[in-house]
């Protein structure tokens, strides 16, 4: 999965931004590079340009990416595993830190099955809608952050400090 945020504003009174999201499969190439191949029907792009459009523009997005190199290291400051990616031209990208162990990955299949890349539904019901099944909710009993490496701590309760000082 790859999610990108871009801030494009050249005029502070007119903020612009792009959010791109896609997921798919990756290939380790013989020369040490990585190729990310997204599922075309799942990628999305959100363009916000309030000075030129009253509403944000939400479209499909599909772009194969090549990373010239990558390295997995332990960050000197945080002591967390860090993934350093280098773009097709060798320029470094923002580092990514391991948050879950084992890593939680999206499935290597489409999340939005459609018959065509244009978005036509693969299957439909008589109303064209699919209802959620509450019986499947048993799969979500475990907390979503059970494997997170760094859990947030609770804020300090000032009442506890007051009673310790008395």
Percent helix among the residues? under 10%
Q: How is the largest sheet built, in terms of strand order?
A: 1-2-5-6
Largest sheet, described in full? 4 strands, antiparallel
Shape category: extended
Beta-strand proportion: 25-35%
Mean pLDDT comes to 77
Low-confidence stretches: none
Count the beta strands: 10
Secondary-structure topology with pairs:
Elements lengths: L1 E6 L9 E6 L1 E5 L5 E5 L5 E5 L8 E4 L4 E3 L1 E6 L6 E6 L9 E2 L60 H8 L1
Antiparallel strand pairs: 1-2, 2-5, 3-4, 4-7, 5-6, 8-9, 9-10
Characterise the protein shown here.
The protein has one helix and ten strands, in the order ββββββββββα. It is mainly β and 166 residues long. β5 and β6 (57-60) form a beta hairpin. The longest helix is centred in the C-terminal third of the chain and has 8 residues, at 158-165.
Features:
166 residues, mainly beta, four-stranded antiparallel beta sheet, three-stranded antiparallel beta sheet
């Amino acid at each position: 999965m790859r999610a990108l945020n871009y801030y494009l504003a050249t005029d502070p009174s007119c903020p612009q931004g792009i959010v791109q999201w896609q997921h798919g499969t990756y290939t380790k190439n013989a020369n040490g590079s990585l190729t990310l191949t997204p599922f075309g029907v799942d990628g999305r792009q959100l363009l916000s340009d309030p000075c030129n459009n009253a509403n944000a523009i939400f479209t499909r997005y599909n772009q194969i990416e090549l990373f010239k190199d990558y390295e997995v290291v332990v960050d000197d400051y945080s002591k967390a595993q860090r993934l350093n990616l280098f773009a097709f031209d060798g320029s470094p990208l923002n580092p990514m830190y391991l948050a879950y162990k084992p890593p939680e990955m999206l499935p290597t299949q489409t999340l939005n099955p459609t018959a065509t890349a244009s978005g036509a539904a693969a299957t439909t019901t008589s109303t064209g809608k699919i209802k959620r099944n509450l019986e499947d909710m048993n799969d979500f009993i475990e907390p979503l952050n059970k494997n997170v490496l760094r859990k947030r701590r609770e804020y300090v309760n000032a009442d506890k400090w007051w009673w310790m000082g008395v």
